[in-house]
Amino acid sequence: MNDAVRFRLEALTCRYGPAAAVHGVTLDIPAQGVTAFIGPSGCGKSTILRCLNRMNDVIEGFSVGGRVLLDGEDVYAPGFDPVELRRRVGMVFQRSNPFPSSILDNVAYGLRLHRRPTRAELELAVEEALRAAALWDEVKDRLDASASSLSGGQQQRLCIARALAVRPEVLLFDEPASALDPISTARVEELVTELGKRLTIVIVTHNLQQAPRVADRTAFFLLGKLVEYGPTVQVFTTPAEEQTEAYVSGRFG
Ligand SMILES: Nc1ncnc2c1ncn2[C@@H]1O[C@H](COP(=O)(O)OP(=O)(O)OP(=O)(O)O)[C@@H](O)[C@H]1O
Ligand SMILES: [Mg+2]
To answer: Which atom of ligand 1 is closest in space to residue 19's alpha carbon?
Structure first.
């Protein structure tokens, strides 16, 4: 078991204009396994997640304090390349967002962006990514079909394949299954568990059954602050804080 730290957040504070949304969050995310972020709506889960690959950079007025270290390097340091950061730290969103192009072109997108693969290299990488996203068997005979011809659950796995194609070290999931039916949700959860064996996974979820199913560790946030962070079983069964207990037992949120 590799217990190296992938991300270290040091006193992370996030502001949208003058309003602070995240207040001095300090936590380590190990390289291995799945880490879940839970907490009521507006507590800052997505804001923190998006700091990990600087997806917030484009939001006008957004600013961060403290540090976000990836393998010991500050991702907000002036010399840190955000494009390379986003190759290393991929993201999958709540609503699947395939590009209006073919299945193949969706998965190939990042590969073409980051290097100039030959057709054979491209096909191999696309197959590998689709297999890793448990979608290959369903689409191998129609790679040139439009991504929009896939079901919602398939589209979400396509987005996972697209993220995997550039060989990231980390995948961030922001409520990846909240728009999916139970069967598609189960497939995405299986995938998250599987991918957590070789990648660092951070998943935001509103679903209180989902975190225990997929996550090794869980961080509970309230009003922009980290309340509790530990092994998922502990957070859900013997939480140290009363606020955690109230949330995981469904008494608020
Ligand atoms: N683009 C934005 N501009 C201004 N304020 C924002 C923006 N995005 C988020 N916020 C504010 O920051 C706080 C944290 O929001 P965030 O989206 O991180 O919460 P969340 O925990 O992901 O919530 P949810 O569970 O509803 O997705 C909220 O008060 C929200 O209103
Ligand atoms: Mg959110």
So the answer is: 5
